[in-house]
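Objective 1.3, modelling of assemblies. Example input:
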Amino acid sequence: MDDLYRDYILEHYRRPHNFGVLDNPTASYEGANPLCGDRITMMLGISDGVVREVAFTGRGCAISQASASLLTDEIKGKTVEEVERMTPDQLLDLIGIEISPARLKCALLSLDTVAHALADEAAAHESGTHESGTHESGTHEEAAGPQG
Amino acid sequence: MTEITPRATAAELPAAGEPAAAEVVPVRLDPYRLRTDFPILATTNRLGKPLVYLDSAATSLKPLAVIEAVDGYNRDYSSNIHRGIYEIAERATVAYEAARTSIARLINAPEPAEIVFVRNATEAINLVAYSWGRRNIGRGDSIVLTEMEHHANLVPWQILVQEKDGDLEFIPITDDGKLRLEVYEALLHLKPKLVAFTHISNMLGTINPVKKLTEMAHAAGALVLVDGAQAVPHVPVDVQEIGADFYVFSGHKMLGPTGSGALWARRELLEAMPPFMAGGDMIREVHLRRSDFNEIPYKFEAGTPDIAAEIGLGAAAEYLMGLGMDAVRAHEQELARYALETLRREVPEIELYGPEAAARGGVVAFNLPGIHPHDVAQILDRAGICVRAGHHCTMPLHERFDLAATARASFNVYTIPEEIDALAVGLREVARIFSR
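Predicted structure (tokens):
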């Protein structure tokens, strides 16, 4: 049995959960590791400060894609605040295999992409340019704080 | 197993220094014997697997002769060059200049003074771009490159033409990784000031027709820079026969230490070029408001260089000349042929990139369908097999083939066919893991 390529990792790679596009995401971001060619677009549907829907598309190594699949399962139904508080270590626990330093970027691309999507959404919200007016929760406003 | 057939005919082999009566036998390289020159090949990985090093295009392993040359300097005569009036300093100067002479012999430069020591091929190209380029490239001038350049032979020229308002043009490549000479011919009508191309592609392995490319450039009035980083360790290089104006290479890919490398350029070009970096050793006389620069090559070697590394590079050049570059090429061409054949047979689904073995160096880039090269490399690592995965500093080339990344196996004098067999077994294991 290979330490890294456990059955459930390969299963998430081959049949990723939440793989696809959202018609009207309230937040989305395309993240990439140019050095490896990993690419992930995260789409979130947020209302009342809660991540109601999540989907992703992308291509890349098994670690990056399985990580995105596991992460999308994890954050669905969580509040934006909870998602923002998620740490790399929590994601690594979720992935559940030992990741070598050279592969950390692959493993963490999904979380990094979600963080960027939320930050962009918060910034857009703050500046009033956001097209959707349905998620004006206090939680959300607070999250926009550090964006300046 | 494979038979190593030398490319050189007996008539082409160097006879100098051999006993007159010696029968002329083709020089053959015995990779099994010379592997004992490389201490790292006796090591094992964390799982006890022997090292199968198939990433020589990234950097080569180092033989004892090089390790000992570096160590000898540090232990026995560590001192600065071109200054000290005492025994070990004179010894260091002699060793450093002897390395320059060895490098000149390896590439058949007309004189050692035309060899400028640099850290690597990247620094050599930057030196030419800043020194020659800034003086000779102006508004509207064009530089012709190829689609298969390493970023080192692309980005310095991008910076130069952006600063000077010049243009870059690119020779496109065919699907089997060869330059399209008819397009090159057309590009030369633009009267470029410089044509810069790689001798051997670090991803496709393509050996470019450097002499012909150079002749065509010269006929159009352009100077020529050849990136020889992947060539000097692997094929006979004769800068006078090629006829190029600048030829650059790294030491660490040719069995030498990291931090060593060389720029060769014609004397009159070097003499006309302004210094790239200024400081000690590159001057003849310094006054408070002006200085006279030293003669070549010292004009381009400001400050204390990596003396140990360049001495090690000299040892590497001697080691390669001892093997005979025709024998090295024959060995690696046979390995390329064996690799293409073995991988196609043992891993039928493999996608291979680049030309046929006769036109390629010891480089094989590949993909397994649906499996990212990082995953391929990670699983191979468990078996002690080192391959490169990524874009190998050739992003535009990967775009040309619509590839996000590739895996790459690359060979050197110490590579043996059994290691290619091990790669094939490893790739079958990768495919098995991903199909379960």
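Chain A has one domain: 7-126.
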